[in-house]
Amino acid sequence: METKARALYTYLVENAPEFTEEWYKHQTVKPGSDYSIDAPEHVVNKIKEQNMNYVKLVAKSLDQTYEEMTGSIGAWTKKTAADRAQSRTSIAEVTRNFGVFRRTFWIFIERFTEQTDLNLTLKDILYWEKKLNTALDYVIESFASEFMKIIVARLEAQSSLINELSSPVIQLTDEIGLLPIIGDIDTARAKSILESSLQRSIDLRINVLVLDLSGVITVDTMVAKEIFQLVESLKLIGVETVISGIRPEVAQTAIQLGVDFSGIRTESSLQKALSKMTVSR
């Protein structure tokens, strides 16, 4: 590392504790936030420790290539993003603190330039500005990316659970199961129904599954495709599918879209489907 950059790096690392206290002075009471001044002591200590590591990581970028910098900072932001998401600290609060950190960082650089005996030039300052601001920008970019990955994964997991719970296979007899579907069906929900229904049918050891669509208002070609795939998949494991309760408007739309239910056993209502099966069995 070049002598002047080494001196700045050493100054920042040695003053990381003081830097962190200066940064922490800007915190207030924020319910539910890791940054709140009334947070539990262990949370405050962890936040301060992370901040000091943050100072060292950004300072280290003075002597790193872009690839080295993104590698070291990326590993740090992945962990801290998980911590913030776990504590439900908002991305807005995190972004605000990034701004406080950046301003504090440059206050300490200014102090260094005032205290050092080194012959600093404008070129030196501009070089540091380029290296350090690139690192600071990447912290925000990588943190936001990791944070959103966690939130999206959480939402997808919740959506999957909701889909599974909203489309349960109910065992009516030893051989017959019922899958009532209510509300709008999109492709994602249809796929979830396919996966959960197959496994549930196997677990219950049923021979017939009644798919009741009386609560479904619309069916498009993609959803129809998923329904057909469910029927075929059930057939492969020895389960017959009976579709009941197709609304007239749904049937009309299906015909207009070229969706053909003729190869599948259908009944106008759930009651008729069940009564016929009861008689036949």
UniProtKB/TrEMBL annotation:
Domain annotation STAS: ranges: 166-277
Keyword Transmembrane helix: no
Gene3D superfamilies: Histidine kinase N-terminal domain (1.10.490.70), STAS domain (3.30.750.24)
Top-level taxon: Bacteria
Pfam families: STAS
Keyword flag Phosphoprotein: yes
UniProt KW keywords: Phosphoprotein
Record protein name field: STAS domain-containing protein
Source organism of the structure: Metabacillus mangrovi
